[in-house]
């Protein structure tokens, strides 16, 4: 199409200077556009018919596609769908598999937003969830499965106890019944662990965390292994294998990629949590340094966790990188290159100590986020998990003195100095409390 240079003021203000010269930028171009012009009458029909080319950003965008290819490659998957947030990734991944009357089996140790989605939003659609407390007991997963079960769900490394999921064991239980395992791999990142290599069928992430890495944007991603098998699982997912009058099924058109093709074609664009191409660009930029950041963050976290565990003010440190952790052996065999950088520390002085610690930190930032280049702290019992009962807190490993740390890339000495003075502040707050009570 040639550029229009004539016409009235208003015509020219919308038509002149809207395309860029053809050149090859080194950085990923940001196709910040609602849609794309069709090159011909037939191209439009081909787009709406066979899905050729680009039409509208909610159904496809070159910047978003590029980041999806990067993530599919790093997770070792067949295909990825990028979404507007991690919550959107979980919602879309689940809604692609379940229907009213379906049942989900989930680890108890999951992100609070995911739990809300299961126990509130999906429950209201007639989709029930059974939670497995002891995620290391294969029989507990097996017993929870019903004829209506359509998905198993867990997190590779779970807050707050930092338990590493035995993905191979849980995936095998699902496989025996034709049920896919979804693993939320936000805490491990594909650099440390690739769940699909251990038998998971689908990986989801909050890309807002380590993938973007600098806390500037929200995003989410779903990566599928592309190994949907209609002969084994087709009866569980009739919407993937059933063909309408004259229209071939998703399975007939996409084979093993049926699940993710269905998400791209019928779930994500209808519910509509489309990522901005600008967000996609920033996530792509972030991923270019993922391995370097996660290596450094993991090294810092291991040093910080070991240092904290030796301190008299500390009751316990739940970090899979420490030999004392119940899932350390599993972490050693399944994680490569580090143990991640998010974990919890529980102070002996309970709530007053935790409050004083949070109020004293200065290198570490007090906020609800994780996986950032900056170190962060949050007090789960009064924030993210404030609505849970004391019994639930106990199951989850959240005590009045528990703090969640997400260790960044800062110089280790500066982190230890900050922690040292924050622990001193915590200890003095506890002494003041004791003095008042005495
Ligand atoms: C943050 C997070 C989510 C939700 O992601 P958003 O991008 O905040 O929507 C889901 N799972 C885990 C493990 C998370 O940490």
UniProtKB/TrEMBL annotation:
Name of one Pfam family that matches: Cys_Met_Meta_PP
Bilayer-spanning residue ranges: none
Top-level taxon in the UniProt lineage: Bacteria
InterPro entries per UniProt: Cys/Met-Metab_PyrdxlP-dep_enz, OAc-hSer/O-AcSer_sulfhydrylase, PyrdxlP-dep_Trfase, PyrdxlP-dep_Trfase_major, PyrdxlP-dep_Trfase_small
GO molecular function: transferase activity
Sorted UniProt keywords: Pyridoxal phosphate, Transferase
Cofactors required: pyridoxal 5'-phosphate
PANTHER family the UniProt entry points to: HOMOCYSTEINE/CYSTEINE SYNTHASE (PTHR43797), HOMOCYSTEINE_CYSTEINE SYNTHASE (PTHR43797:SF2)
Family label: Belongs to the trans-sulfuration enzymes family.
Protein name (record): PLP-dependent transferase
Organism: Microbacterium gawkjiense
């Amino acid at each position: 199409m040639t550029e229009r240079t004539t016409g009235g003021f208003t015509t020219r203000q919308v038509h002149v200077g809207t395309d860029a010269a053809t050149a090859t930028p080194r950085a990923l171009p940001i196709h910040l556009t609602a849609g794309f012009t069709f090159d011909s009458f037939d191209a439009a029909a081909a787009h709406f018919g066979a899905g050729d080319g680009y039409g509208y950003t909610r159904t496809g965008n070159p910047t978003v596609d590029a980041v999806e290819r990067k993530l599919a490659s790093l997770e070792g998957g067949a295909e990825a769908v990028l979404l507007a947030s991690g919550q959107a990734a979980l919602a879309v991944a689940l809604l692609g598999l379940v229907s009213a009357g379906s049942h989900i089996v989930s680890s108890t140790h999951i992100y609070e937003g995911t739990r809300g989605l299961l126990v509130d939003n999906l429950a209201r659609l007639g989709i029930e969830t059974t939670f497995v407390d002891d995620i290391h007991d294969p029989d507990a997963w097996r017993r929870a499965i019903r004829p209506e079960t359509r998905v198993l769900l867990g997190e590779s490394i779970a807050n707050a106890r930092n338990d590493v999921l035995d993905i191979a064991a849980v995936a095998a239980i699902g496989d025996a019944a034709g049920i896919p395992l979804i693993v939320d791999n936000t805490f491990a990142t594909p650099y440390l662990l690739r769940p699909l290599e251990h038998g998971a069928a689908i990986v989801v992430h909050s890309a807002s965390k380590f993938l973007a890495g600098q806390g500037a944007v929200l995003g989410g991603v779903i990566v599928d292994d592309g190994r949907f098998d209609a002969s084994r699982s087709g009866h569980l997912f009739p919407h993937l294998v059933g063909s309408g009058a004259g229209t071939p099924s998703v399975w007939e058109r996409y084979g093993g990629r049926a699940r993710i093709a269905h998400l791209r074609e019928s779930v994500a664009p209808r519910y509509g949590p489309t990522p901005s191409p600008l967000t996609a660009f920033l996530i792509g930029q972030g991923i270019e340094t993922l391995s370097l950041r996660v290596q450094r963050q993991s090294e810092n976290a291991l040093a910080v966790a070991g240092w904290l565990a030796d301190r008299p003010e500390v009751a316990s440190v739940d970090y899979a990188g420490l030999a004392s952790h119940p899932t350390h052996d599993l972490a050693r065999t399944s994680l490569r290159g580090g143990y991640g950088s998010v974990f919890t520390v529980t102070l002996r002085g309970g709530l007053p100590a935790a409050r004083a610690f949070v109020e004293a930190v200065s290198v570490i930032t007090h906020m609800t986020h994780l996986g950032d280049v900056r170190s962060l702290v949050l007090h789960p019992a009064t924030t993210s998990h404030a609505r849970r009962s004391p019994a639930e807190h106990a199951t989850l490993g959240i005590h009045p003195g528990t703090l969640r740390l997400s260790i960044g890339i800062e110089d280790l000495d500066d982190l230890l100095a900050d922690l040292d003075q924050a622990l001193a502040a915590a200890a003095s707050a506890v002494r003041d409390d004791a003095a008042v009570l005495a």
